[in-house]
Design a protein that fits this description.
By secondary structure, this protein is an alpha+beta fold. It has one domain. The chain has a three-stranded antiparallel sheet, with helices on one face. Strands 3-4 form a two-stranded antiparallel ribbon. The relative contact order is 0.26. The model has no long low-confidence stretch (mean pLDDT 85).
Length: 87
């Protein structure tokens, strides 16, 4: 399972969606990254793979960052997102 996490301006909590396959997660990551670069479209709608009716729409101008990481059961639920200086 892969997590695509969005950091929003003035929000302490990120918005995240999950994808089962790495290629799907990477495609969504690239889509969000493209939106950040272009500022278009104005709204970005993300949906849940598991529950079709579950959706979230974010204003692209409010996005600060996007990250992609793998969620694993072995490390207590997920790898530590972001970058770490630990070896």
């Amino acid at each position: 399972m892969y997590v695509i996490e969005l950091a929003l301006k003035l929000s302490p909590l990120p918005v995240s969606v999950q994808r089962k396959e790495l290629k799907d997660a990477e495609a969504l990551y690239q889509q969000v990254r493209h939106c950040l670069e272009q500022g278009q479209p104005r709204l970005l709608e993300l949906s849940c793979e598991k529950v079709d009716e579950k959706k979230v729409t974010v204003l692209v101008s409010e996005l600060l960052a996007v990250q992609l990481y793998e969620k694993t059961a072995a490390s207590g639920g997920s790898k530590r997102p972001g970058f770490s200086f630990e070896a």
